[in-house]
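ingest -> validate -> predict -> emit
validate: passed (alphabet ok, no gaps, 471 aa)
predict: started
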Amino acid sequence: MGVPPSESHHRRRSSVRAPPDPPAEDTDDDFSHLNHSHDTDPNRDRREHPADDTDSLSDLSSLAESVEMDYRSSDDDLHDDEETGLTAKQRRQRHRRRRQRRQLDARIAGVKASRQDGAVVNLADRNVAKRLLVNAVLIGLWYFFSLSISIYNKWMFSDSKDVEDPVVFPFPLFTTSMHMVVQFTLSSIILYAFPSLRPRHPSPAMGYVAPAEQPPIITKFFYLTRLVPCGIATSLDIGLGNMSLKFITLTFLTMCKSSALAFVLLFAFVFGLETLSIKLILIIATMTIGVVMMVAGEAAFNAVGFALIIASAFFSGFRWGLTQFLLLRHPATSNPFSTLFFLTPVMLLSLILIAFAVEGPAEIFNGFMALANAHGIVAGVGFLIFPGILAFCMIASEFALLKRSSVVTLSICGIFKEVVTISAAGVVFHDQLTAVNISGLIVTISSIASYNYMKIFQDAPRIPRRDRGAE
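emit:
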């Protein structure tokens, strides 16, 4: 005899519609039957069929969608267990599939993130490699043009008894003046082709000013008091250095010309550009000792050639001091091309006058006729202007390298360039170096490196972060 059920007691629909222990493979049929029974309710969403384990691992896109649906309906599913009549085994299977989907979704997200991070790293590596490659090419071009013009000038200005080719043109001052003509022409072409390199007026503080009302960038007073002294000093620096090649070897010229830094520091003290300190005095003294050692070890010492190269180093320091003191941050000399455009006429005039006074117009004419008779007029003119093209290309590559890197990089590469030049001179002209020569060269280069090292730490707070990263 049974007790009648109470009206307040609701029997679970699972006990009527599902067997006590249905097999796992019949779960889909039960779900479809239950969904069919709930289709009559318009307020209830239709539940999708759960995928099996094989489909959840193979189809990634459907897994992502199903996981998203599981996240949305996770709270509802907890209450649906009582209504749908899921057994403990069915709930475990459902939780296992949900956990697999979540793990797979996390794995997919991790793969995507790692691919994105790898793409960013690869792009950065490619940019760094590209920048280093371009800088290496510019350094190589700078070295190539510098070595080419040094070797060419040594061959061109040597006496006929010192070289195998009996036809040379040993008139370095006149030839250097022809270089100025070439550089003026090429700089004019560059400024015409690239208007952004032309000197411009600084932005006025009061707003727009009509072009007719703006003062000229170069005044007569500025030209006579600043450009003319710098042009004369530059012409003497280059002209005397080339003239010394008639008497000394290229190796000895390179070693002695490295002492120009001592004169640069001396004129920096004179013009107030550097503060006198014990460190700088020691650097100058060490460099002087190195020069003395190089001179003492020179087997074929020539007093005239040594005097010319030391005078060239003197005017090199004087030119640097004048440039820093007079032309610093002026729009007319904002880049090497505009500087050449304004300085080369002064350099041409001063070199022509000195060449006629020292080398003589008759001797220059006879030397050119001998060169033209041996190689032709066109080739003779080409011999005179070709070094000017090399010098202009060297300046352009040096300027491009400076824009992409920094002064520190240029200084370090300049030190190594001296070593490369000496090595090339030994290969081409068979210049001999003694132990004293090499010791003096090491002392001089060490003092130059010490100065650059000191300047790096002095200027580091003023160098922008981008420039320091470029080094």
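The first helix runs from residue 14 to 17.
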